[in-house]
Amino acid sequence: MTNQPKNKDPVAALWAACYKGAVAEMSEERDEDRPMPFRPREYAENTIFIYGPFVSERVGDMMRYYGESNYMTYGVFEEQMARVTGNELMLRINSPGGQIDEAARCRLRLQMYQQEGGRINALVEGMDASGSTLLTQLADQRQIADMGSMMIHEVRYPLDAYGYYDENGLKKVAQKATALAEYVVEKNAMMASIYAESTGLSVLQCRRMMTAETYMSASMAVDKGFADSIFRP
């Protein structure tokens, strides 16, 4: 009988093998053969399209390889920002959120644009959830479609605690979980402060809404101060 290494999840190993195979196939294909992220610049001038989840560049490459065009990486975002001219831009948003660090980088880029005198208008077309709300709440004017939705919740991070562990392995997992918990507490406080500043609610109110994972219709988003008005063409 073959001895299997400790603390290895066979499912995770299978996914890792699939990823390596996909990367090998991707390297053999021409770049123009793969679908590009969806960002129809020809339809609107000075418009940033935030469609799909925020993901890392590596995950974005995988999604692109498998034919998915609705995703947002910082690279895609910066590419769109580089085409903006003038001092006003429009954010069109339909995103479930995604990786908070990637969304935070995009938010910082918009803050730099505002510091240079730029004005941001945001339109929530469908869903504006989790990390994507960081960008919406930064806008000078926030509109939401009459059938649009918003959602805020607590920050979540993957722990990667899969498989079977011996005593030392479990201690390491516990240490990592403790460190992540302290990190997430600070991130939650920061996000609650961002929401409080943009909505006029108290930090405690925003924190409670995050804990409850609050979904808001267009009218609720306006009532709570997460949007300024409902967009009706």
Largest sheet: 7 strands, mixed
> Rg from C-alpha positions?
20 Å
Strand content is: 15-25%
Mean pLDDT: 85
- Parts with pLDDT < 50 across at least 5 consecutive residues: 26-31, 39-43
What helical percentage do the residues reach?
40-55%
Could you say which structural class the secondary elements and strand pairing correspond to? alpha/beta
Shape, per Cα inertia axes? globular
N→C terminal distance? 68 Å
Instruction: Give the tally of β-strands.
Output: 7
- How large is the count of helical segments? 8
Fold and architecture overview:
It contains 8 helices and 7 strands. The chain is α/β, with parallel strands linked by helices. Strands 1, 2, 3, 4, 5, 6 and 7 form a 7-stranded mixed sheet that branches. β3, α5 and β4 form a beta-alpha-beta unit. The N and C termini lie far apart (68 Å).
Which helices and strands occur, and which strands form pairs?
Layout: H1 10-28, E1 47-51, H2 57-65, H3 74-81, E2 88-95, H4 100-115, E3 119-129, H5 133-136, E4 141-145, E5 149-152, H6 167-199, H7 203-212, E6 214-217, H8 218-224, E7 229-231
Short synopsis of the structure:
By secondary structure, the chain is an alpha/beta fold. The protein has helices spanning 10-28, 57-65, 74-81, 100-115, 133-136, 167-199, 203-212, 218-224; strands at residues 47-51, 88-95, 119-129, 141-145, 149-152, 214-217, 229-231.
Essential attributes:
233 residues, alpha/beta, 7-stranded mixed sheet, 8 helices, 45% helix, globular
